[in-house]
Amino acid sequence: MIAFYIYFDFADAFLNIRQRLPALYRLFEYIKSCLLVYIGFQAVICFVLADWHPAIYEAAFSIIRALLAIAGFYAIYELLKLKDIVSRYFVAGTLFIQIGSLISQAFSLIKPVDDLTGPFWTISLAYLQLGVVLELICFSLGLSYGQRQIAIRHAIMEQELAREREQRRREHLEAELSVQRLEQENTEVHIRALQVQVNPHFLFNSLNVLDSLIDDDPEQARVFLEELSTVYRYLLRSNKEQLTDLASELAFIQSYFNLLRTRHGSGLQLSVQVDEAYLTYQLPPLTLQLLVENAVKHNSVLPDQPLVIAIATDEEAQLSVRNNIQRKTIRVASNGVGLSNILAKYQMLGQPVPIIQEIDGQFVVTLSLISSLELRSQ
């Protein structure tokens, strides 16, 4: 009888009867209570009462078995309402144990004492055991199928989660790329704005020089104007680029220097010592022009005290622009466009900030040149 008690709990755990068939679950709970009462009753008969009453014992046992058989067939009827494969296996197992139990009970009524020396089909207990074996086979198949379905559902859920994670990862990457594109576009806009900021600054200074030359030397003014148009074409072209190669920048600064020499003559000198290996390296356009202009603006330019501007590279791919310091006696107002413009460009490009120093009477600005390898890695 304890086996029947366990069977009801197993059925609930196996098929979730409590949720799927609540009426049948309540019946199972009632039968379990009756089984506990019956077991207690049998214990009293066997161990408490002094006299043995076989008739009472057998009658109670037969009644309980009959009630359990009825309950079993009712359970089969209710379980057939469940259409899943696992429930079918459970119903088949229950049916086998019910049939085996009924045949065994019928044999017990016909032949109370089994002849254990005869064939097995004449022994009532054999049918009960056969029903138990078939029940266990069905339950095992049902459990196996149920576990397989759980594994399949788990695998499907894992795949869906993996797809969801991959989708989220892609969305995250796309969002990061969008942010990077926006940042890059924003950087380009800022750089363009800085370059446009240079154009009028350079133009106004050049026009001031031209204005002076028109009165002093009209022929030189004409040559200056031709040089100015050449320089300004480069300047307009530079607005379309974030970076330019060092060779182009040096060619431009030579033309720009010729404009300055037109006015200052031997009072201004330019020295260029650049390793040819670095001519393909990159830097922001107009960087050298801003530094040369800054040097001329803040220092005296005299034939007997020339302003010497030196442009050179070192082994660490750094470009230095230096000039001897000979500040003007009348301090020139500075709007801060030149050096701050260069610093801002390097910061926006994610490059090391230029180093500005005064060393032994020299004003030195050291810039990092950008290799093509660095550009590809960005």
Automatic annotation (TrEMBL):
<feature type="transmembrane region" description="Helical">
    <location>
        <begin position="27"/>
        <end position="50"/>
    </location>
</feature>
<feature type="transmembrane region" description="Helical">
    <location>
        <begin position="120"/>
        <end position="143"/>
    </location>
</feature>
<protein>
    <submittedName>
        <fullName>Histidine kinase</fullName>
    </submittedName>
</protein>
<dbReference type="InterPro" id="IPR010559">
    <property type="entry name" value="Sig_transdc_His_kin_internal"/>
</dbReference>
<keyword id="KW-0812">Transmembrane</keyword>
<keyword id="KW-0175">Coiled coil</keyword>
<feature type="domain" description="Signal transduction histidine kinase internal region">
    <location>
        <begin position="191"/>
        <end position="266"/>
    </location>
</feature>
<keyword id="KW-0808">Transferase</keyword>
<keyword id="KW-1133">Transmembrane helix</keyword>
<dbReference type="GO" id="GO:0000155">
    <property type="term" value="F:phosphorelay sensor kinase activity"/>
</dbReference>
<keyword id="KW-0472">Membrane</keyword>
<dbReference type="Pfam" id="PF06580">
    <property type="entry name" value="His_kinase"/>
</dbReference>
<dbReference type="InterPro" id="IPR050640">
    <property type="entry name" value="Bact_2-comp_sensor_kinase"/>
</dbReference>
<dbReference type="GO" id="GO:0016020">
    <property type="term" value="C:membrane"/>
</dbReference>
<feature type="transmembrane region" description="Helical">
    <location>
        <begin position="56"/>
        <end position="77"/>
    </location>
</feature>
<keyword id="KW-0418">Kinase</keyword>
<feature type="transmembrane region" description="Helical">
    <location>
        <begin position="89"/>
        <end position="108"/>
    </location>
</feature>
<feature type="coiled-coil region">
    <location>
        <begin position="156"/>
        <end position="185"/>
    </location>
</feature>
